[in-house]
What we know:
Shape: globular
Oligomer: single chain
Order of helices and strands: HHHHHHHHHHHHHHHHHHHHHH
Amino acid sequence: MNKWRVFIFSVALISFFTILFLPQPQDLSIAGKRALAIFVLCLIFWVTNVIPLSVTGLLAIVLLPLLNVLNTKTAFSLFGNEAVFFILGAFIIAVALMKTGLSTRLSLFFLNKFKKTPQRLLIGIIFSSAFLSFWMPEHAVAALMFPIVLEIAESLRLKPGFSSYGKSLFLSLAWGAVIGGVATLLGGARNPLAIGMLYDRFKIKIGFLEWMIAIVPVVIVMLVFAYFTIRIFFKIDIKSIHPAERVLAKKIKTLGPLSREEKIVGVILVITIICWITLSNKIGLANISIFSAISLFIFNVIHWKEVEEYVNWGVILMYGGAIALGFALAQTQAAEWLANIFVSKNKLSPFLFIVTLSLIAKLLTEGISNTAAVAILLPLGFAFGHKINPVIIVYIVAVPAGLAFCLPMGTPPNAICYSAGYYRISDAGKAGLLLNLVSWIIFLLMIKFYWPIIGLIF
């Protein structure tokens, strides 16, 4: 064990036991103090990633009954939250899209429509990756399109680390996937986690269409600004993309006609999306998601071994712990106790609170997993913003927490695209800093002027 890990474990354990053995506050229960101790322990582990996020989630589930914060049955039953099974079904559908090649066909189809000029190709990459991230996890989209973009860059003989257009290509892929990932409940794990925590706390549901109505307009504006940010910072240093056109044409020809499996997956996906949009409030997102996943096995499109290889089981395990911990903070009123201390000293207007919380989410997600950022901030947001519509709290935490543009560790698409070697961290940092600021301002403007029109009033 290196010195850094020893230091982090020492800080975490000292903080944990210090809170446990501090004198009991008069207006906080023993269970509440213990819940806070577990929260601080998990917070340190999630921020530093000194152990896997999933392991920290499991630790939370185990500590809650061990310290008599929740009984064993309640703590472990929270792992069966609807959001967990919704994302499991969504992961399985994504596996089918990738395994059958339908997702590759869709990405090539979109890219082929934008192949005439270098500018249009960039637009094609950023909007194609964003659109695919509406329906697939953003990391899967980045992994899927990465080899295609890499082959395009190689065909154009772009020099890694030096070609300005090469930097543009990979940042377009990364940022398109990141921005598209917040548009629906499918692009990232943090969105289902947030609505799961909302339901456990307030018994309020956010439907698939409801989320899209609130967020998709924001996403479209952000994508436009992302494209112009890339154009401002990185000049187009090539005149023609004819070699790239040949690459795309060759790949499309290699795919051949639609296979039986692709047709089945396409039909199931379309039906699933329609059901999510129209029936989610009656049937439930998870029921639709799992039934669609089962249909893929019934039609023999995918096999369980393939699911085991592709599904991010760690994220699912983290879900259970994060939801259980958030429930415990609310049940024991520990979050409210913290909120009372904060609010009594800092009286913020509702809009200033929204500005502050969304900015914290934005900054935090550049350094830690966006799912962890939601797990940390949402329980506190519910408590601190108790006078604000909790649905709005979900949006102002989950959406900014998904918009990391500067650092590779901020989100998987950034890490995947950075691995190509076509741009440096400093390249992404300068342009990403501007996009972080602009995207946050766009988000706040939409909250202020667009959300009241659709009934989201704070």
